[in-house]
Amino acid sequence: MPPNLSGCLARVAAPFGLPNGAQGNRFPSMSKTEILEALTHLTAADRGVVWECLWELEERGLVEDRGPTDDEKALLDRELEAYQRDRDGGSPWPEVAARLRRKAPA
Fold first, then answer.
1. Number of domains in the chain
2. Which of 13, 51, 62, 95 could in theory staple to 91 by disulfide, Cβ–Cβ 3.0 to 4.6 A?
């Protein structure tokens, strides 16, 4: 198991009904179909935990493994150019966070 991944897997284990994140340091094998089916039975909070772990894996892959794809590089270049044209065009994070909290279901 890659370093620092065990914590993420341990957080995901409970929503999938696995004790302490693993059984003998091994997770049972699930097909993509089984995983997607299991996700439909999770609470919003548990799906949030899965979502966070997926992003951690994606970030790790982006940084350590593959780097950005050509499409991702093009998107980053476009966003950088837009920022350089208008550095005040966005919203401060506190405003964005407040808007998201107002839109989030209770």
1. 2
2. 95
